[in-house]
Amino acid sequence: MLLGMRALLRKMRQVRILVVGDIMLDRYLWGDAERLSAEAPVPVVKVVRETVAVGGAANVAHNLQALEIDAELVGVMGRDADGRQLAAMLARQHLPLDPLLQRRDIATIVKTRVMCRQQQVCRLDRESDPARYALPPAFRPPRP
């Protein structure tokens, strides 16, 4: 089984894969909770650190690269502070994004996870209307 997997990986390294999808920033707030809020029965998480990672289709492309598979990423994201941070992360990972796909009229999709003792307490999503992340016509393949 392991030899078959290695042969498959060698073959996959000979192709180029186009990853199309939502490009997002995954943010994690790490902390601990020792009490409940006086306002509602929810834990009060004292944040001790924050981490970020590429998410969505960008994570898929990054994982392919980690397997030494040539991947190209196509998707739409905002040209906001989160988008600039995400674009810099993508560039460092050798996954540049076409500037035409960075738009001022939408928010970069950000999924923020609040983590307490290695467990996810909640997730906060920031995004525009999903239809606004559609690829421009110039980037869509013709329909058969």
Give the topology, please.
Blueprint: H1 2-12, E1 16-20, E2 23-36, E3 43-56, H2 57-66, E4 70-74, E5 77-78, H3 81-92, E6 102-103, E7 109-116, E8 119-126
Parallel strand pairs: 1-4, 2-7, 5-6
Antiparallel strand pairs: 2-3, 7-8
If you had to describe this structure to a student in words, what would you say it looks like?
With 144 residues, this protein is an alpha/beta fold. It has a single domain (11-128), classed as 3-Layer(aba) Sandwich (UDP-N-acetylmuramoyl-L-alanine:D-glutamate ligase). 23% of the residues lie in helices and 40% in strands. It has 3 helices and 8 strands. The chain has helices at residues 2-12, 57-66, 81-92; strands spanning 16-20, 23-36, 43-56, 70-74, 77-78, 102-103, 109-116, 119-126. It has a 4-stranded mixed β-sheet with strand order 3-2-7-8. Strand 7 (109-116) and strand 8 form a beta hairpin. The model has no long low-confidence stretch (mean pLDDT 89).
Q: What's the shape?
A: globular
Helix run count = 3
Number of strands: 8
CATH class assignment: Alpha Beta
SSE ordering: HEEEHEEHEEE
Model regions low in confidence, pLDDT < 50 over at least 5 residues: none
The averaged pLDDT comes out at: 89
- As for the CATH topology, it is UDP-N-acetylmuramoyl-L-alanine:D-glutamate ligase
Query: In percent, how much strand structure appears in the residues?
Result: 35-45%
Helix amount, in percent?
Answer: 10-25%
CATH architecture: 3-Layer(aba) Sandwich
Count structural domains. 1
Structural class by sheet pairing and helices: alpha/beta
**Separation of termini?**
38 Å
Strand order of the largest sheet: 3-2-7-8
CATH 4th-level superfamily: Ribokinase
